[in-house]
């Protein structure tokens, strides 16, 4: 089960200054989460290395809450997603609506073209742009941390998908996604100063504490995936590393996101989670700029010769029987459909009664709730919102 670490003072800033450890623990319980630990960087460091450790006094004593979240709730893997969901649950705000903004008109087309050769290694790519984003140190670190958590979870340690983020002001469209022989290009990897080809990169990063684990994903492949801009500069060599020259900083305002993948659904979901969480900091909150991705005619997929506009932030809308949901929890005589709609809305599933005579509810499932796949998922969320402790305890008949 993934764990999200958030600073107490940042939680209070969003959820209210009256928040205490006890009240947050209770809120997590009611929402179906668990407050696993209350600690600090100083406490974690000294616990591991001792109070006399040389660097101990340099560590922060800011209180950190460690929260365990369900493995399929990718939308809760960062402060931004967690606090937005909790504010909606507490009735402090309504679920935001995520929209695509028309592309900004420039003299360089911000499009992506996928070459046929990529089908041999990582066939697909999903792109997006966040405009006018405002980073500070905390937001920047949260942005990086969320990518790491998504890579470890839904992306299955980058084997199914991996994301690269770039400062749009440093690169030029149109972009291409190629697969190249490792000795046919050079670039300066992120955090390095030496320009190197793919073979040299493998040698250098084989000693890198974090990145060496991902090298086997493409090491023996005859072609390496590569994202390039209009000047043929390497932006990233997925799923390993980005380029030094295109890296984002605290001064970055426009972020170009690319996610190469072997599983297109996982890639789309990963990008959706990243852009929905951080579009709140965009110049137009909760808006994302789409990028057309065109697959070359010879590409070995159903997308050959076609264009896919990414990301797709379209919500799913379904109709369900409110009575059936209530009966599943044996609360059909305790609440009506209006209350069911209200309870589901608290769980980030905007709902309303559309036909009282037929007992029909309309439920909107935003892209952030990729875990909702069946009516039983709605029943689970209704149980959480209604309160497990409010359900009647009965002995099973068999």
Automatic annotation (TrEMBL):
GO molecular function: ATP binding; magnesium ion binding; phenylalanine-tRNA ligase activity; RNA binding
Main location group: cytoplasm
The B5 domain, residue ranges: 313-393
Keywords: Aminoacyl-tRNA synthetase, ATP-binding, Cytoplasm, Ligase, Magnesium, Metal-binding, Nucleotide-binding, Protein biosynthesis
Entry EC no(s): 6.1.1.20
UniProt record, GO biological process: phenylalanyl-tRNA aminoacylation
InterPro entries: B3/B4_tRNA-bd, DNA-bd_dom_put_sf, Phe-tRNA-ligase_IIc_bsu, Phe-tRNA-synth_IIc_bsu_arc_euk, Phe-tRNA_synthase-like_B3/B4, PhetRS_B1, tRNA_synthase_B5-dom
Pfam families, per the entry: B3_4 (PF03483), B5 (PF03484), PhetRS_B1 (PF18262)
UniProt cofactor(s): Mg(2+)
Protein family: Belongs to the phenylalanyl-tRNA synthetase beta subunit family. Type 2 subfamily.
Protein name: phenylalanine--tRNA ligase
Organism expressing this protein natively: Perkinsus olseni (Perkinsus atlanticus)
């Amino acid at each position: 089960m993934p764990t999200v670490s958030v600073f107490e003072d940042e939680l209070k800033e969003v959820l209210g200054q009256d928040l205490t450890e006890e009240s947050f623990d209770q809120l997590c319980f009611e929402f179906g989460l668990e407050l696993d630990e209350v600690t600090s960087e100083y406490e974690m460091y000294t616990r591991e290395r001792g109070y006399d450790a040389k660097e101990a006094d340099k560590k922060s004593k800011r209180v950190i809450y460690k929260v365990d979240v369900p493995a399929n709730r990718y939308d809760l893997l960062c402060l931004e997603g967690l606090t937005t969901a909790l504010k909606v649950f507490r009735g402090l705000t309504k679920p935001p609506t995520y929209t695509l903004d028309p592309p900004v008109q420039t003299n360089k087309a911000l499009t992506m073209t996928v070459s046929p050769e990529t089908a041999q290694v990582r066939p697909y790519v999903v792109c997006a742009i966040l405009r006018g984003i405002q980073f500070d140190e905390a937001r920047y670190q949260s942005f990086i941390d969320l990518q790491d958590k998504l890579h470890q979870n839904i992306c299955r340690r980058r084997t199914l998908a991996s994301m690269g983020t770039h400062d749009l002001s440093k690169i030029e469209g149109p972009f291409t996604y190629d697969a190249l022989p490792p000795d046919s290009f050079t670039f300066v990897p992120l955090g390095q100063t030496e320009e190197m080809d793919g073979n040299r990169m493998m040698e250098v990063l084989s000693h890198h504490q974090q990145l060496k684990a991902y090298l086997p994903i493409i090491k023996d492949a005859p072609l390496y995936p590569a994202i390039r801009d209009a000047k043929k500069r390497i932006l990233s060599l997925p799923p390993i590393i980005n380029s030094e020259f295109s890296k984002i900083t605290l001064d970055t305002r426009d972020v170009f996101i690319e996610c190469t993948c072997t599983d297109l659904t996982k890639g789309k979901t990963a990008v959706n989670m990243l852009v929905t969480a951080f579009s709140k900091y965009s110049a137009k909150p909760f808006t994302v700029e789409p990028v057309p991705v065109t697959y070359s005619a010879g590409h070995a997929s159903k997308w050959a010769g076609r264009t896919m506009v990414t990301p797709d932030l379209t919500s799913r809308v379904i109709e369900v029987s409110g009575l059936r949901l209530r009966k599943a929890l044996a609360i059909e005589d305790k609440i009506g459909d209006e209350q069911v709609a209200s309870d589901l809305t608290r769980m980030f599933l905007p709902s309303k009664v559309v036909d009282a005579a037929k007992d029909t509810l309309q439920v909107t499932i935003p892209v952030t709730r990729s875990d909702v796949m069946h009516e039983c998922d709605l029943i689970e969320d209704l149980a959480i919102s209604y309160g497990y402790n409010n359900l009647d305890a009965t002995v099973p008949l068999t």
